[in-house]
User: Which sequence fits this backbone?
């Protein structure tokens, strides 16, 4: 099993995390922010990762630190669980419709952190979760997982649907990329011989 645990404490947040990449999508999550918990539950369910997460943050200020620091911890914990990445598919792709919304997410578990996050001008926020927090989550996650991540929202009119499609798309792309390719289970998916 590809598992990892992590504790991260700063002046702004205190996070405890356990992850199992080869799980069944079970989640026990408490961040103090109900909408963010909902997004993380979606991430687990659709990636089939099991996660136990407790995060305490300065939500009296806003959700930014809690979201960013959780993504930092999650990216680092997943990177540890992936180990040297021998046998993984490496690339993942997902295109998710959510009613009027359509989102594409593409990931490369390349050890090269990069985020390309594209949204249309004027897209709405969820009622208590600015769309900018989705971008901050993806940036911190990709930097600490050390992956290349492209997120593009083609269109959408409901901020809840946009955020949900982003997290579901990330989950499905991640699941695909992290899966073991049985035809190449002993190989690193790179001609360089290292990721």
Assistant:
């Amino acid at each position: 099993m590809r598992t990892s645990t992590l504790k991260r404490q700063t002046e702004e947040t205190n996070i405890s995390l356990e992850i199992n990449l080869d799980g069944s999508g079970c989640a026990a999550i408490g961040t103090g922010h109900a909408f963010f918990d909902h997004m993380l539950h979606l991430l687990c369910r659709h990636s089939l990762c099991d996660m136990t997460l407790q995060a305490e943050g300065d939500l009296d200020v806003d959700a930014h630190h809690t979201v960013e620091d959780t993504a930092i911890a999650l990216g680092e914990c997943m990177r540890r669980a992936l180990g040297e990445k021998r046998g993984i598919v490496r690339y993942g792709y997902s295109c998710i419709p959510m009613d009027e919304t359509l989102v594409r997410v593409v990931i490369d578990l390349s050890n090269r952190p990069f985020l390309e996050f594209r949204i249309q001008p004027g897209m709405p926020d969820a009622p208590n979760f600015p769309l900018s927090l989705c971008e901050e989550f993806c940036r911190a996650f990709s930097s600490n997982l050390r992956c290349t991540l492209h997120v593009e929202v083609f269109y959408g009119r409901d901020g809840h649907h946009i955020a949900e499609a982003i997290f579901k798309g990330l989950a499905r792309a991640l699941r695909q990329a992290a899966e073991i390719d049985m035809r190449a289970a002993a190989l690193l998916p790179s001609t360089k011989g290292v990721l």
